[in-house]
Design a protein that fits this description.
Chain lengths: ~325, ~300
């Protein structure tokens, strides 16, 4: 049996399977732990160690050159009173909330729609996925030129949505709305793909049964599709929340945190502090908050909603 | 299976309770408007405009002269198409950026494939609690945001004397691709039959031979997904190059694009031509290996 196309989501990890142990040659042909050591060291050096270091660095003063020197809790008391940080936290939470609210319904509906096997749907979904091919820098530049108040698309559309001068990026709310919009435009295709995969796994017999029972399209959607997509919704939401909390590239290109600091979400504030103002110690304190919140939120979501759920959805597609 | 009409998605098949199921099976008898889900189709068309209009504006703008663009706005049809903008981009350092990106992409994909295959193999086949611990380390890694640890990564890369080198980008980019790839490959490898391992072991094959002759061939789809995923992560990465490099010689495509903003200033058509050229290679892959690319994009595993 070659690699099977339908994966069993509940296949257990291979520890403690007494039946095969009875066959005698327990360790024969099995790799030792040494096989994983290079990869593990590599990962530890560039991911685990930095995660610990960022906490240590948050208690230091460091200008990017030379060695960091400890300065106690100075960064943290400064962080507590930093108005830009407070605003950044609010903005990050709002970005998370809004982008979830915009992306989930659209991605869910289009994903379920594109799961149909009709030719028209296949052609259209091939187009819908195109934004995924571009880097966030490429898309950021595209939207920056489209939102240029003088020469961009926004000069034509602006008056319709209350920006008669087209200067969306020049107003505080407009710039934030632009960030939410571009983030959604960029990431809805990814989540559409997730939902498409999820919807295609729903057993057809469920719909057949519902049809015989006389359930209409809307009823089928709410009684079958939505509950069956529960795991996909969890996976997609976790990715969205973490993605929004760590959103950075587009903000740098589109608004540079402005006007003023009105779109300076936490990751941007950290970048600005660390690599523009070269206050790396203080930036590490901001980063620590980011690590704790982003890691915490994703672990929490995964825990609350069932750890296995996310894994099996990811593996099962 | 009687019908083509029953779709997994809720589609236009809503019908009253009185309909007999028999009628459903004959497609031709149903009028067109019953077979199509009109509201959903309408929504899809709106979405087509939302996605399509900016992409159209992107491509159309690059085919126009700067004056034409400034005069007529983003959505107009190019009157006299020109490739001049592409010339401008190709005359700049674009090609050098492309080569740098290609090096980073290939090297990173290679590192990730080798490491995630060996880790996945250990996680799936080693019978100790430690190997499960290893796996959990990588699951935790899924949750570590690269943005948040960029400062220590900068410190480590500087101390390793790798600042402003391509290797300095390759290493951290690969490390942050690893967790997803380990997850994908351990999933793929778990699907290989226990008996196949046993019969190879009975033939006296060691772990290296089993890996090479059994695991790798049977995990090919997972490995290709992992390769595509790692390649995309490297190709599109912006943060690591932004922070870890500075000179012209080590500039990758994403960073080069960001620099074009200053270089081309108000020459938006030329800037957008650079954007288009940066997407072309991935687009070609999309045309020829759509399934692998899509799997890689989602970072989900190897069907």
């Amino acid at each position: 049996m070659p690699v099977s196309s339908t994966r069993l989501p509940v296949r257990k990890a291979p520890e403690a399977a007494p039946s095969s142990r009875a066959s005698g040659s327990k360790g024969a042909g099995r790799p030792g732990l040494g096989w994983a050591v290079p990869g593990l060291l590599f990962f530890t050096l560039f991911a685990i160690v930095p995660m610990i270091m960022v906490i240590v660095l948050s208690f230091t003063s460091w200008q990017g050159l030379g060695m960091p020197s400890f300065n106690g809790t100075e960064n943290w008391s400064r962080l507590w009173n930093d108005p830009v940080m407070r605003q950044g936290i609010t903005l990050s939470l709002l970005l998370t909330l809004f982008s979830w609210m915009v992306q989930t319904p659209i991605a869910l509906l289009i994903g379920v729609w594109s799961a149909g096997r009709q030719r028209a749907r296949a052609v259209l979904s091939a187009i819908f996925f195109l934004p995924l091919l571009a880097s966030s820098v490429a898309l950021g530049l595209l939207w920056k030129s489209l939102l240029d108040p003088n020469f961009g698309l926004i000069a034509d559309i602006g008056p319709w949505i209350g920006f008669s001068d087209g200067n969306l990026l020049g107003s505080e709310r407009g710039a934030f709305a632009a960030i939410v919009f571009v983030a959604s435009w960029q990431f809805i295709p990814l989540h559409t793909l997730l939902y498409q995969g999820g919807a295609r796994q729903i057993p057809k017999s469920l719909y057949d049964a519902a049809y015989v029972d006389g359930a209409g399209t809307v009823r089928q959607f709410f009684s079958i599709t939505l509950p069956q997509l529960k795991n996909t919704i969890i996976t997609s939401s976790v990715l969205m929340v973490v993605g929004a909390l760590t959103f950075f590239d587009t903000v740098l290109i589109l608004t540079e945190g402005g006007p003023g600091t009105s779109t300076a979400i936490v990751p941007y504030h950290m970048y600005n502090t660390g690599f523009e103002a070269f206050e790396m110690g203080y930036a590490s304190a901001i980063a620590t908050v980011l690590v704790i919140v982003a890691t915490g939120v994703s672990l929490l979501l995964v825990r609350i909603t069932g750890f296995g759920a996310m894994r099996s959805t990811r593996e099962g597609m | 299976m009687t019908d083509v009409l029953h779709r997994p998605a809720p589609s236009g098949e809503g019908s009253g309770p009185g309909k007999s199921p028999v009628r459903v099976s004959s497609k031709s008898r149903r009028p067109l408007w019953r077979r199509w889900n009109i509201p959903a189709g309408f929504g899809a068309l709106i979405w087509l405009v939302v996605i399509g209009a900016p992409l159209y504006a992107l491509v159309a703008s690059t085919l126009r002269t700067r004056d034409d663009y400034l005069e007529k706005g983003a959505l107009s049809i190019p009157g006299e198409p020109t490739l001049e903008n592409y010339n401008k981009v190709l005359e700049s350092s674009f090609f050098q950026y492309l080569v740098n990106t290609a090096i980073v992409t290939v090297a990173s994909a290679a590192i990730v494939i080798v490491l995630s295959v060996t880790i996945g193999y250990t996680v799936v086949r080693t019978r100790t609690r430690m190997s499960q611990r290893f796996f959990q380390v990588f699951l935790l890694g899924l949750a570590i945001p690269a943005q948040a640890v960029i400062i220590p990564v900068y410190l480590i890369i500087t101390k390793l004397n790798l600042y402003d080198s391509l290797l300095g980008i390759i290493l951290p980019v690969s490390a942050f691709s690893l967790p997803v790839c380990v997850l994908i490959l351990s999933g793929t490898m778990r699907d290989i039959d226990e008996e196949m391992y046993e019969s190879m072991a009975l033939d006296g094959a060691g772990p290296a031979r089993i890996l090479w002759q059994l695991v790798v061939p049977l995990s090919r789809s997972g490995i290709s997904t992992v390769g595509v995923y790692a390649a995309l992560q490297a190709w599109n990465n912006f943060l690591f190059p932004l922070i870890l490099t500075q000179s012209q010689e080590t500039k990758v495509l994403t960073l080069g694009l960001y620099d074009f903003v200053g270089q081309f200033r108000v020459d938006i058509p030329a800037l957008l031509a650079a954007v288009v050229l940066s997407i072309v290679p991935i687009f070609v892959v999309y045309l020829f290996a759509r399934r692998q690319l899509v799997n890689g994009l989602m970072g989900v595993g190897g069907k």
